[in-house]
Amino acid sequence: MRDWEVAAREAVRDLLARYNFCGDRGRFEELLDLFAEDATLVTDVGTHVGKPAIRQLFVGAVDPEPERIRHFTSTVVIDCVADDRATARSYFQVLTGSGLDHWGTYRDVLVRLGDIWLFSRREARVDGMVPGGWAARRLGRREL
Amino acid sequence: MRDWEVAAREAVRDLLARYNFCGDRGRFEELLDLFAEDATLVTDVGTHVGKPAIRQLFVGAVDPEPERIRHFTSTVVIDCVADDRATARSYFQVLTGSGLDHWGTYRDVLVRLGDIWLFSRREARVDGMVPGGWAARRLGRREL
Amino acid sequence: MRDWEVAAREAVRDLLARYNFCGDRGRFEELLDLFAEDATLVTDVGTHVGKPAIRQLFVGAVDPEPERIRHFTSTVVIDCVADDRATARSYFQVLTGSGLDHWGTYRDVLVRLGDIWLFSRREARVDGMVPGGWAARRLGRREL
């Protein structure tokens, strides 16, 4: 593995973790900074193209309940397609105040702009959820 | 830490994640490609030496139920013994459609062949399981 | 990202994982070796300054029950402040023999002494716990 690839993979891993930390704390501006201008965010309730649409999704997802959300992301597989393009797959678990709520898979396309790696496309799919939990209730309302 | 060690550690971490992604999707050929020819795979039900024996274990482990298995692997400790040999320890959690099913510890010996890192030995031990879950039922039949 | 930063981040990630592996196995001397002499460890029950105080915390935390503790740490965000100083944030889940017990957030300051990265400050905060679990019972006695 070449040095540039090691650095690229480290930057991608950092981007993935930062997304979760910003998201769990409702820091939407920092979250949006992680996306390319024309990025696409796909979730189980729809496809959002471009930063304005992604911003709207984040703002609309604000929910006074639960107070504390934690995304545990692991099993990160990264493939460097070029020195400015990579794909990544990873798993996430979401814990609320009650424990495990739902879990799923991220599939990402990452691009490097100058020194910065950004999401070009993020697909977040729920693989399972606790019956009666937060996600189960929201998904019933198509809000996840 | 030298550059070669950083690259080696990154390759080892990639190998560990790839094993889980291939395994969760039943991609046995890709999974086998991650092992050295004379590799050993140790699980709670036995020791499997060489790729043919490991292949047999994977094929025999196919189970129509549950549909979705997800291995969340984290807390990865890697020790580079030489520039072509490393050991790793990590924890895994397995979620089925019902949530957490079982969890355990991987202990690995990794070797580099040319540019590729492979499992020389993988030991997967279950540390706990949910009573009445998938693993608990299989382990009762010695199939895990 | 420069080569030194990639190496620093790898060393920090290693330090975080090693802490959990040593802790889960009760290897307190190895655990203490991960801290700087004047390090601070902050938990929900108090602040411990210097290695002797940290050692006392570890020894006092020994509990015959549960037998098996596993810390699953993921979503690691690392910021290199200088070539000998970094901060990190990560999430941990603790599983006992009964499954998920409690979970929380680490906030760390890491320093490099020569070739070795050490904890200068670690703050471990519990974000949630399973009612009636091990942490819930200990925290009731202010022992966590």
- Binned strand content of chain A: over 45%
Mean of the pLDDT scores of chain A?
94
**Main sheet specs of chain A:** 6 strands, mixed
Number of helices of chain A: 4
Q: Outline of chain A, from the CA principal axes? A: globular
What is the helix fraction of residues of chain A, given as a range?
Answer: 25-40%
Biggest interface goes to: A-B, 21 and 23 residues
Give the helix/strand class of chain A. Answer: alpha+beta
Contiguous uncertain segments of 5+ residues of chain A: none
Question: How are the SSEs placed, and which strands pair?
Answer:
Three copies of one chain form a homotrimer.
Chain A: H1 3-24, H2 28-32, E1 35-43, E2 46-49, H3 51-60, E3 70-82, E4 85-96, E5 99-113, E6 116-129, H4 134-140
Parallel strand pairs in A: 1-6
Antiparallel strand pairs in A: 1-2, 3-4, 4-5, 5-6
What does this structure look like?
The structure is a homotrimer of 144-residue chains. Chain A is of the alpha+beta class and 144 residues long. Chain A has 4 helices and 6 strands; from the N terminus they run ααββαββββα. Chain A has helices spanning 3-24, 28-32, 51-60, 134-140; strands at residues 35-43, 46-49, 70-82, 85-96, 99-113, 116-129. A 6-stranded mixed sheet of chain A has the order 2-1-6-5-4-3. The longest helix of chain A is centred in the first third of the chain and has 22 residues, at 3-24.
